[in-house]
Amino acid sequence: MLSNSSLMKRFRKDRRGNVAVIFGIMIIPVLSFAGAAIDYARASRAKATMQSVLDSVSLMVAKDLSSGLITTAQINSKAQTYFTALYTDTEAQSVSISAAYTQSSGSNGSTVQVSGSAKIQTAFMQIVGFPSLGFNANSTSTWGANLLRVALVLDNTGSMSQSGKMAALKPAAQQLVSQLSALAQNQGDVYISVVPFEVNVNVGTANSSATWLRWDQWDANNKDSWGRSYCSQSTYSWFARAECVGHGYSWSDGSPSTNKSSWNGCVADRDQSYDVSATAPSSLPTSFPANQEGNCPAAAILPLTYNWTNVNNTINAMSPNGATNQTIGLLWGWLSLLQQSPLNAPAESSNNQYQHIIILFTDGLNTADRWYGDGSSISTQVDSRMTTLCSAIKASGVVIYTVQIDTDGAGQSAVLPACASGPGNFFMLTQASQISSAFAAIGTSISQLRVSK
After folding, report:
1. Tens digit of pLDDT for each residue in 131-145?
2. What is the pLDDT of residue 117?
3. Cα–Cα distances in Å, from 62 out to 108, 145, 224, 237?
4. Which of 144, 153, 248, 345 fits a disulfide with 329 by CB distance 3.0 to 4.6 angstroms?
């Protein structure tokens, strides 16, 4: 039997229990480090969830504000409402959010910033004195950062008098003007042009001396004293000289009038292939043929302007008449956006970014131009010219929206959906009451909301 002194000596030399002692000492920091990773992962997940919700909230609030659905005083309460509906993380505690609005200045867009904070209760870090982990997130929606140049290309053909279409188009277009003009914080932030069209467009009689006009296709008289058409193909008695000759028929007025004072402002398509090109006029083929077409739009083209009274007056002056040539309207809409003859859009500063947009509204299918179609039946040749033009416009960077209303069952256009810059840019309507909502949707889209963090 060992003595007490021997046992004491053995105990002092024995090292077999050190592992347990060391483990007992290290267990707390080991658990703390492992637990910290778990707690931080939980906090990161909760923050990511909040970030995603704040992104949605800032976008929705900005859309409501830019669309006029709420005022700046309602931003914070609206953000709270959206956030409460979307944020369902049960681990987060002491959740708080706030929203702030900053008005646009110069080329900087208007913004809505939504900020949030919260915390989670820790499961492991509380052992070392950290009972909770806090986190923050924020999201900013910006709109109107790009300056806008918008061309409204509007159908003024005779069929627009039916089913209340013209009556619905005017207030819808004016509401869109109001929606877009509200994005401007400074004069010139938003410009709008108006291009009423039928087979021809009206450039205004004040341009009778313009160098970009040609008069070799013009005659002030379309019919003789007996009311008979001067066009040898009398079936198309509505043909003016440009359409008659362009279709390959003879013009029988031996002494065409050259009195420009009686010109009604109408121009026809210019020579192919300039009819689908933005080439500036510099020669006879590139110039625009004056044409005394009897169904010339009552409202003349209005170049880009921020005089909203003039824009609305032009829309009010529209009157339905004539056949459909969407190509000529689309071309003049494009030309209205360019800093060149004939419409000489206002200069653009290199310090700003610009969004160029065409909105083409029509109630029918292409039936005639200077060369093709009878003005009644669909013309695939006019569609072909328009397809080429649409491709050129989009390639130049212009965004196109197309709106077709079909109230008589003629069917969807073969060219309008493809002419639009994307599937969401084409609107197919069947009732005049739908025009307003389609234009409102376009206005919201043009606001160009984006999230920047």
Report:
1. 888 899 999 987 766
2. 95
3. 15, 13, 62, 54
4. 153
Q: What is the CATH number of the domain that holds 341?
A: 3.40.50.410
Neighbouring-strand partners of residue 279: none
pLDDT surpassing 60 at residue 16: no
What per-residue confidence (pLDDT) applies to 98? Answer: 95
What domain range is 263 assigned to?
A: 146-452
Are the beta carbons of 135 and 50 closer than 8 angstroms?
yes
Query: Per-residue DSSP letters for 312-347?
Result: HHHHHT----S---HHHHHHHHHHTTSSSTTT-PPP
Residues in the chain: 453
pLDDT band at 411 (very low <50, low <70, confident <90, very high): very high
Name the pLDDT band for 126 (thresholds 50, 70, 90): confident
* For residue 436, pLDDT beyond 90: yes
- Per the DSSP assignment, residues forming a β-bridge with 194 are 152, 302
Quick one: 82 and 176 in the same domain? no
What letter represents residue 214's amino acid?
A: R
Tell me, yes or no, whether 182 and 223 share the same domain: yes
368 and 404 within one domain: yes
Rounded distance between C-alpha atoms, residue 195 and residue 417, angstroms: 20
138 with 151, same domain? no
Q: Last residue of a domain, which of 143, 167, 194?
A: 143
Instruction: Say how many domains are in the chain.
Output: 2
Residue 387 and residue 330 in one domain = yes
Query: How buried is 37 (Cβ within 10 angstroms: 0-12 exposed, 13-18 middle, 19+ buried)?
Result: exposed
pLDDT above 70 covers what percent of the chain? Answer: 89
Q: Is the pLDDT of residue 419 over 60?
A: yes
pLDDT of residue 302: 98
Domain boundary among 86, 121, 143: 143
